[in-house]
Amino acid sequence: MLTEHKDFNIFTLTYSGEYTGTDEEVVIPEGVNIISSDAFKDNTSVKSVVMPNTVTYIDSRAFRGCSSLERVVFSDNLKYIAPQAFEDCISLSQIELPSSLKAIGASAFKNSGLTSISLPENIEIKQHAFGKCLHIQELFVPASVSMWYGAFSECRKLTKVCFEQGTRSLGSNSFAECSNLSIVLIPDGVTRIEDFAFHLCDSLKKIYIPQSVTSIGRSSFYRVDRKNKLTIQAPKGSYAIKYAKKMHFKYEYVEENPYVNG
Looking at the predicted structure, is the pLDDT value of residue 8 above 60? Predict the structure, then answer.
């Protein structure tokens, strides 16, 4: 287990080198604030990393390609995970993100081995942050979460997404190419479904769109089977029904949200 090492300055912004050791367990020293870019990039030996509560920032590609990494204990004061920080960490199946976290950068966990994810409140998830996470099956999205383009795109085993009451918008390409997604629980209060939000979600058969929705992108359900699979459920006279008719989707009049209790 690594606890002392001559290259500990790789954990600061002042050093651009990489850790080249072969330790399986790394305990980062107390007092370190930043784990620098490329610090452990492509290291195939490290299996476990424990961070002290002084760490507030994990820089770009810090652990990218750490194919053996199975366990990360994050700082309770972590604020930001930079782009590609854990991309291609294919053995990383479980993480517990701290409530202090404010943003997850683009592709931060893309193509990782995550099987589930619990999102903190008030977090910003940037482009493709969890794209191609091929083992996540269900997802709960808190209302205070802000999702950028393609946040969960190509999560091909994802079958169910539930949005918390208070959610206002479903972002562009958020779940594009989630080919096994069959259940989407949209609460009352959502007003917008952005373009390509459910692009190529081939298993989506029914979706209830509440009365509160007043804007749906023309391509929100682009290349979803209109004739044989997807039925839009919504209150009579709602914007969603008008959209279904215009876009030639099947539709059903449903006056009350059947998923209000998830």
Answer: no
